[in-house]
Amino acid sequence: MTTAHPSTAPNQESARSDGRGSAPPSPPSGRRSNRWPRRIAITLAVLGALACAAWLGLRWITPYPYSGTVMQAPTAAPSMDGLVLSDGTPLDIADFDGELLLVYFGYTSCPDVCPTTLSQVAAARRRLGGDADRVQLLMISIDPERDSLDVLGDYVTSFDPSFIAATGDLPDVERVAAQYGIFFAKGEALGDGYAVDHTATLMGIDPDGHLRIIWPAQLDVERLAADFDELL
Question: pTM to 2 decimals?
Fold first, then answer.
């Protein structure tokens, strides 16, 4: 009679329980979950880069919407020879290369449009911060009979200390005004004086010396400041 060995069954159970021959353990779940934040970050970075590229491409294709009339074929700004600045020095627009030169034909006794325009330019210029130093307003008096150099200097600097002015003998003023498409003529009597009818546009000569833009008499300060920034 054969006697069964009692240790056989327990040995088989221990062999199964010690993990030998079983399926390999799965990797820790933490490794798999850590991949998703990285994938999301990469996806967001790619989408951001594509959006930025699309914005730059659209800006390149779409022209900036100036608030004035832009010259389609800008030419060198006409000379202002014969005119004199309020400090007595000859006016040479070549001295303003690298700056945005704003040219306005007006006069100190102007009751409305001239002071309004100068005030709006001063306000727009202040919005540029550090770039304001590269924007120069020049008012040319079309009333040399009454606007002496001292009167001119005091008038324009009352709007902004950086503003400058010039004038000259009437024939020289008429010649320069005609070159810039400006009309002016003595108008009706006003009190003890008279008005001067004139074209009230503001003109911009870019940093390269080209007559680039003409703004209408009615100016929007915010849009004007944006135009200045774009032209610089």
Answer: 0.74
- Across 92-113, b (16+ Cβ under 10 Å) vs e yields ebeebeebbbbbbbbbbbbeee
How do 135-141 and 164-167 pair as beta strands?
parallel
Rounded alpha-carbon distances, angstroms, from residue 169 to 4, 45, 147: 136, 65, 11
pLDDT, tens digit, 9 for 90 and up, residues 144-198: 999 999 999 999 999 999 999 999 999 999 999 999 999 999 988 877 889 999 9
